[in-house]
Amino acid sequence: MSNVDDDEDDYMSDAFLKQCSDTRPGLMPERVAKKFERDKKKKELNNKHRQMYKPRATLEKEKREEGMKATIGSDNKGFALLQKMGYKPGMAIGKAGSGRKEPVPIQLKLGRGGLGREAHQKRKQEEQRLMRANMSAKRQRMDSRQRTEFVQRMGGRFADKRAEGDLRKSQKVCEQLDAEASLTQPSEYFFWPAEFHPKNKKLKAENDRLNQGLSDMSGGYDSVLDDDDKEEEEEEEEEEEEKMELYTAAEMLEILTLYLRKTYKYCVWCGTRYDDAADLASNCPGDTAEAHDE
What we know:
Radius of gyration: 53 Å
Helix content: 55-70%
Largest sheet: 2 strands, antiparallel
Shape: elongated
Number of helices: 13
Strand content: under 5%
């Protein structure tokens, strides 16, 4: 009984499954199953042909490369004529033997454009590339110049404001030192602040008197300063303004600094009045604001 069981195949084994026919695609309509079989056979046939035959373009490319790599044989008429004239394979052509050793290579033209069109397009593309490169370089130079000009302009504004502040400070110091030296007039108009000039003080005093109601003592503003005095003072003011327009704030500061250092041994940035020129030279960093920043 056991021997009979051993001879029978197990329906769960692989051997039993191999005996069964392939009924794919399974439970489908007959029309769909036939189409599946046709597609399967067509695919197998295409794979077989693809292995056996190469595409025409591939075959042409291989033949072309094979022909270009092959050397010219003796059956070539041109080669036979060269041999009659003493040419040997590997020699360079020409009277001096410095010419070409190999034939001119073939440049295959695959496009449908006219002769010279590709070279023209390449030349135009190169010109456009150079033009774009020049424009980019020009734009970069312009941006760099604008940034430099902006930095210089802002630096100049800062320097002008700093020079004006230092000039104002130096003018006040100069007026105080000149007053201590019993000087009633500045050496230059811009050495003192405008409000400390004698004529301005006089005008200010007269205006104060008028504002305080003291016009009855002076006979009015016109009696204190008649027309001639007014014209003279206006002319003096115009002359002084013209003198100040000749100098910038930095130039006036330089002149005033030299006056203070030479006359009073004073440095406005140190805020110190030194004993003598030797003391000034040894202890003061310099005669500019930049020297004191370092």
